[in-house]
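Troubleshooting log. The previous structure file for this entry was overwritten by mistake, so regenerating from the original sequence record. Sequence copied from the archived sheet and checked twice against the printout by T.R.
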Amino acid sequence: MAAVCAAFASRQLARSARNRLPQISRRGFLSTPFLTSTEPSTSSVDSPDTKSGPKVSFRPPPVKRGSLASGSIFADGEDFPKITTGGRTPKRRSEAAAEAEAQDGEAQTTIVDLSERDTASLERSLNPHPNRRARWQRKMIIRTIHRRGRLTRKEKIMQSERELSSKSHWFKTSVKKLGPLARQIAGKNIDEAILQMRYSKKKAARDVKAFLEQAKNEAIVSRGMGLGQAEAQAAATETAEGEAQVEVTAVATADAASPVTLTLKDGKRLVVTDPTSIYIAQAWVGRGPFGREASPRGRGNTHILRPPYTSISVILKEEKTRIREWQEREQKDIRRRKAKVWRQLPDRPLTMRNQYYAW
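Regenerated output below.
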């Protein structure tokens, strides 16, 4: 063992004492400056453009400035002066040109009075099925004659009360997610329902809130709903021009200020201060079409997703409708209770009378 260690140590000493040759890498040996210094010159006359700096291997391409072609859609005549060779810049139109264009537009868009229009050309769009329309009109005339001009209960209610049916666009959500929101707002005042959707944690509540605001505006503009307090305030602020005006104003303010306490179908009590305020009578959801979306998966596979779309529909009514329904329920309950009252000796006419005893 000692002999082996001595031989290994002597070998290391011999290597350290040996003169080492300088190591030159292959890349450095074959580099361009080294070859240039070693290769003989091929030309007898040195070129004056020879530079001593390093050689640039890549230069960016020169920038080319373009210009508009003769038939370009962006070349709008000679009104735009050539400021640079690269293209044109817009310039403000003169007042004379603007006035001329306005006059030409007015001449082209002349509005014809409705009485002067040709009804024959509009007949196809206004009355696409003339035979069906004639049959329907005949049916309605016969119905009024049979009833002798008397209106049904449903027609009287439709003439005296206002309502609006509205349906939303397709929301990108499912029926299970939109159904609880519809049940939450059903039966509530429109302003309270909008407030509920504003502070709801549901994602679809934002779309429902925007839809309720749109439905409320449509009911106010197209049906005139929810304007009782505004009309009462306007009547109260107007100057009185006689006893009749004063009495009308007093009645309007009294009706607007007198609250009504009613009982709903579920047993809850509700205080109505404005009979013309809007509430949501019904709210339901409807299933819509299914979309198609790609879902990239592993190993080059792609799944097709079918996201559902759902809509929500509401029926808006005024509080006077709820008051009428409450009064009808109360009257029906009174009649039902009176029918159950038992009298020991009812006052009835005598029947089956004869000359013989009945015992």
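DSSP finds 13 helices and seven strands in the chain. Archived copy saved in two places this time.
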